[in-house]
Amino acid sequence: MRAQSSATAPPSVAVPAARARPAAESPQVSPRGVLQAALGVTAFSLTFPATAWGLEGFGPWSLVAVRSVLAALIAGACLLALRVPLPARRHWPGLSVVAAGVVLGFPMLTTLALETSTTAHAAVVVGLLPVTTALFSALRVGSRPSRAFWAAALAGAAVVIAFTVTQSGGALTSADAYLFGALLVCAAGYTEGGRLARVMPGWHVIGWALVLCLPLTIPAATVALSYEPVQLTAHSVTGLLWVAVGSQFLGLVVWYRGMAAIGIPKASQLQLAQPLLTLVWSVLLLGEQLTPAAPLAAAAVLVCIAVAQRARA
């Protein structure tokens, strides 16, 4: 947690550097940008269930390293095929933040958490991610959301947190440290990636971030596979392929394009629906049970998203 934006989309969809808006200026909300961000959220919502499937046949370190290598090979092939030039030197620090937060940090920390945590409990992290991303955006790129925006964002986050904690029985686990660490590094990576996607195509951002990690992920995959047993099953292979192609690459392509089109704070609010989508997939794919409160929570979150989308930054 699509084919609306492929890895081979032409670079012209991005905002050219010469016409890029100032960082503090909020772009107009475009339906296409909303759709792209929503497709990214849908792809991300499948990440936790797919990771749970992947852990049925791979160890946590193997799963994260192999998914990153596979995604990097796809991205690198696209970059080479289209003869995309290297990013400007000034963009490499930002790409490093994307790589550390989105390519390495978030997948590793959440995969470790899911060894001892349910997908419902892990969804608490995603419930907090929109507000955290908006906060990082305000600090990093100078965006200033309105009070109505913040009220809707906080209300939606409160609904999601209350719902997901209830789903997990209200218990805190030892995985919480991993989950909150993942929250912080992912918000930083999303913010930096959204900023870069306003001056280069979104798929270039995640593509170069993935390639940048190859000197680390290839040796890590080799070592991890030699120490952790592997059992290839339909679930484990499907889970691996989804987190590598859907979550790690294509989902981030449309997500960064959506952020570039409608702004980081507004795009991040669409993620308020992600925990609820994850719970739906958990029922369908993992056999987990939903309580009758799910439809009410979903309706409340959708209202908060609508208010946040209409609030002027």
UniProtKB/TrEMBL annotation:
Keywords: Membrane, Transmembrane, Transmembrane helix. Residues 1-21 are annotated as: Disordered. It is found in: Membrane. It is a multi-pass membrane protein. It holds the Pfam family EamA. The chain crosses the membrane at residues 34-55, 61-82, 94-114, 120-141, 148-165, 205-227, 239-258, 293-311. It comes from the Bacteria. Residues 32-161, 175-306 form the EamA domain. Belongs to the EamA transporter family. This is DMT family transporter.
